[in-house]
């Protein structure tokens, strides 16, 4: 095909005339709308290429068929926003030239699929994973690239990154056993909310139950609503019913706050009367009084790994599932000690 001379002031009207299509068709191609015949799309793109119509950055997106956007779905029905996870994942995709679009409302199947069908994103990062999360099954069925931060009960063929919470709970219980505690309680957000079962809380509770079984300890678990006040209420009931408790493990920030509130309400000094191990960020652990012994939550690493896995699927075309469990570490501070009295 002969090269057309560059027009002095090119508009989409000129592109339409040179391509033999309507202005509306050119507009739809420029906006990456899906309902244009592929042959027509290619003809218009060739004309635009020859004339040099599109700015370079937009042109790369049009030619590659990519939007340059990643969708992050963080439905806020359960936990507070996971800010560090979101920031780490966003930085990871931005380093590769992508922008991130955060969606916090629940999505129907049609809305979730529409993100890809309408070319609003090239891939998705899913948070707040249910044990039978339908989003993962839906996107996998349609072949769209995504990664989960968290994991389902059945992860066959799926990519995810998650904290190895079973290892974290084991570290906490082993630490407390080593100090001489034999009545170790557990306080967590209830995994079941409005008929939804959330993965992280489920795996944490199961890990505690298995750790007690292996060590011959009684299971002393309390579950509550997702707020610190609801968890403080659950902790007070547990401490009132089992006065022999000398230590407590709390795997979420709000359950740590609930445990500390309940201990204060009952006049239990930490760590003399009650040792506490929590899963919180390092800054929060260090400003608490006393400083908290923690299982760390590796949010930065998880966000970075999620971005890497997704970019491998979107940019490099990888299809093999990648599943990463990040091992947490235990940091001993002032909130744990030998049981007194």
Features:
single chain; 341 residues; alpha/beta; 434 Repressor (Amino-terminal Domain); Rossmann fold; 3 domains; 6-stranded parallel sheet; 6-stranded mixed sheet; disordered N terminus
What topology, given as strand order, has the largest sheet?
2-1-3-4-5-13
CATH topology of the largest domain: Rossmann fold
Q: What number of structural domains do the residues give? A: 3
Largest sheet: 6 strands, parallel
How widely separated are the two ends?
A: 91 Å
Q: What would CATH call the architecture of the largest domain?
A: 3-Layer(aba) Sandwich
CATH class of the largest domain: Alpha Beta
- Mean pLDDT rating: 88
Number of helices, where a helix is a run of at least 4 consecutive DSSP H or I residues? 13
Q: Gyration radius, to the nearest Å?
A: 26 Å
> Segments where pLDDT lies below 50 for 5+ residues?
1-8, 55-60
Fourth CATH level, the homologous superfamily of the largest domain: Response regulator
> What structural category characterises the helix and strand content?
alpha/beta
Order of helices and strands: HHHHEHEHEHEEHEEEHEHEHEHEHEE
Assembly type of the chains comes to single chain
